[in-house]
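Could someone model zinc ion with this protein?
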Amino acid sequence: MSKYTIQGATGEWEVVIGLEVHAQVTSNAKLFSGASTAFGAEPNCNVSLVDAAMPGMLPVPNRECIRQAVRTGMAIKAQINKYSRFDRKNYFYADLPQGYQISQLYHPIVGEGQLVIDADEKAGIPEDKVIGIERIHVEQDAGKLMHDQHPTMSYVDLNRSGVALMEIVSRPDMTSPAEAGAYVRKLRSILRYVGSCDGNMEEGSMRADVNVSVRKVGDSELGTRTETKNVNSVRFVQQVVEYEARRQVDVLEDGGTVDQETRLFDPGTGTTRIMRSKEDAHDYRYFPDPDLLPLELEDDFLEECRASLPELPDAKRARYIDELGLTEYNARELTAEVETFARFENLLAATASGIGKPEKDVATQVANWALSVAPGIIKSLGEEANPAHATAEAQASILDMQAKGEISGGQAKEIFEIVLKTGREPEEIAEAEGLKQVSDTGAIEAAIDEILANNEDKVEQYKGGKDKLFGFFVGQTMKAMQGKANPAVVNQILKDKLG
Amino acid sequence: MSVDTKQVAKIASLARIAMSDAECEKMVPELNNILDWVEQLGEVDVTGVEPMTAVIPNTLRMRDDVVNADPKTGGDRREDVLANAPVAEHGFFGVPKVIE
Amino acid sequence: MTDLTQLGIKAIRDGVADGTFTAREVTEAFNAAVAAADPLNAFLVKTPERALEAADAVDARRAKGEDLGKMGGVPIGMKDLFCTQGVETTAASMILGGFTPTYESTVSQNLWDAGATMLGKLNMDQFAMGSSNETSAFGNVISPWRKSDGGNAALAPGGSSGGSSAAIAARLCPAATGTDTGGSIRQPAAFTGISGIKPTYGRCSRWGTIAFASSLDQAGPMARDVTDCAIMLGAMAGFDPKDATSLDLAVPDWEAALSDDLKGKRVGIPREYRMEGTDPQILESWEQGKAWLKDAGAEIVDISLPHTKYALPAYYIIAPAEASSNLARYDGVRYGLRELPEGAGLQDMYAATRAEGFGDEVKRRVMIGTYVLSAGFYDAYYTQAQKVRTLVARDFEQAWDKCDVILAPTCPTASFALGSLDDDPLTMYLNDVFAVPASLAGLPAMSVPCGLNGDGLPLGLQLVGKPFDEQGVLNAGLAIEKRAGFTAQPEKWWS
Ligand SMILES: [Mg+2]
Ligand SMILES: [Zn+2]
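Reply:
Sure, complex below.
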């Protein structure tokens, strides 16, 4: 697929995108106070005197928030700054009780890093692409305004005020809505692997400021950008890019100029509009927060951060391919989400130990089960299935029986259905419901003898070279055994008897 | 550097202090006197000098990630938080309606 | 019976402890003095019942034989910059009109825990911005001192802790809290013939104290003598995990280690403090101070603090810059004044509230601070000032190779008539020219009275010490106090 461009009357335009993602740091308490970060509390209940900026209140940083930012920086292979500072960003707004946001401008905690977005042919990303990350800094979230509760007043809730955010600032390295979407998805995945952000975009745990500019294809200079604030889904990020790119092209082609401005996204219409309240807030008068000393990180602290990092998506994917022998597709699917790989790895370990083989020998079987078989069954059962019954042990024992030839693929599915509905033990189901293959050579041999006796003509033809007839004998045997014969045993006996 | 009435008005707006034209005008010489006087700092050779960050050698201490460990810096005290508010309704602070 | 209001902290504490008098008797005496001193306008809020209640609790503890604490039964005045739970706290500004904290500042809590009791909240320069107490929104504090020429001109008690200095000098309380950002304990102490110490930055927690300039603000005691300062500082100071700049150090027993024997100590005399425009009588008192310290066994050495001249202008960039941001929270949303003109939106409400609520000097400093931080000016002003601050601090560091403590005047003049510097902010700022360098460097510094000038007004001498060496400062102060024999008191004209 070709490059993403916008066709205008005067020529072709390309779009340049940079994202500032605000990710809520996973912590119990706020960045500078001991109030809870829990979502959904009654208004102004998770608010300390510090968060409400009462006179004389002072910030003391939460070590866990700093630790999570450092771990996140390490996960994007970024420079970790052992010396950083908190600065005040001064502006007046009702969701900002201090009259300033404590942030980091001059000396952020995390410097240059990078993130790789995965190739996606269909979306127009022909190969993996490296997106530069300029910095990550730690800052306070603002409170919330409600505009629709009173005819003449807005209501202020400070529950979010002071919650720790990481602002992750990309380079303007993205050139299509798909790349912007892939970036947010990949970043979310990394944050969730690291455990530094829950990635819950509906609850606002992750939201993006989308910087968009356009220029004529071939131009080297960047156009003037707009910043659309607080976009809270991957789809919306893509919509913002599409809408803003088109809008800016139209403005420029009409002979106008794009203003560097802050805009708001309206999910209802998929459009953006200028944000009035931020119009004159351009002089933030940043300066180092005199309530806080420089933040100096010790080697021990950094070592602990590094040691606590899990295997990250790219590394995990490579290992799945190289060591487990999975296909590129399966590896990608299994590593996309924390929950997916966690389920897979549990099931893989349980199955391998149950069967008594190395993981790599059963990985493909487990991957197929985990990616297509099991989800298909769960989906087809709908409400009838209780996913809580789909434990790793239960699934492992099904896969174990299948690998040992005790049950067929079809029986495995039937057993899993019953497990999902009832939570019963797979082995007990197999016994009680007769969902077992017959490996008893006596019974199979008797059945085969009868079939061969009744089909002497076909036996002759087979011996005469008509190999295809082997399938016929297998089919007849399975039918005689009501589908419960172990195919491997059937094959072996047939081969022996037919010579 | 010195300021004129227009700049004083701009500073007053940034600082959110309502000022009439007359008040701005009156403040011009007051601010310029002070600014002229602090200008002498420009005489000081500060080559290679770092700006002051911590006046007494001390490093930034951090807090443990524990909710409400100290009631003085913890949450769950809505009444105290709202006690002095000019307008508080239904657990919220009230402000004139904002149009975003 | 003796006039209990003539007693200081140590005498009251010891007298209550040994049963010479009760805490209630002491409190009643001071409550009466406070009630009779309205012309001084030193108190913004009087809390006589609260003081009595606390005194009774001390007496009850004594009856049970319990420990009464470092300041058991001592009633004090509390500068209105300290948030006091249930007692209106305004920083002498209209913008905090009616604000009643639901919490207690660490410093005041430490004092109550040490057995002190509160007579009331003391007037001050609005948000601690001023050197004469004329910027209070609730009227000037009048110094109890008058010139000996027989005129009745009202004089400045100094500032910003002017309610504190006036109240102590007038024997309305034996001691009071002060805060010092650029001389606000030392200059009013000097103006009123009392002692006051600003400890090393970080000794006293800033939690619950209304901020002026965070990197400079330090609380400290103001009292009648050096011993009382040592006792009260011991009660106020201490590590506080709620203040990220608090020093995690044990509080020494300064009182126990007090000594005016300065043998082996070197006292530095900074040559740059000999400034033009300094009152000759102040220069004389400085010479006298040297002689006293020599007499106490110290060696006098000349030192140089070459960047002294630039300390004050640097201060008048750094302090307003921090203040402009610290005072942004006064917006009419969560506490204090709200001005909402007809049809006003949120931003109009802010501007109207702050226009109405802040006094002229506060506005001036917020404007300066906003300007020096604004786009295009930040480096020229703020960064340059912080570099100069580094040089000022370095001057002191180098001086400590040559001396253990520094002796200097506290201010360039004695108290002046209220209103005399109304139109002259810069001359007013010069009051703190000798005080500000130690503030910029975060060093412990104190003022002790050394005598009266020709007008019969008190003069003070300043001692500046190494970081954490409050003891060295207190001991040198004690050496001067013993030799100066300062006992003068203002004549009681106000009641
Ligand atoms: Mg942004
Ligand atoms: Zn941000």
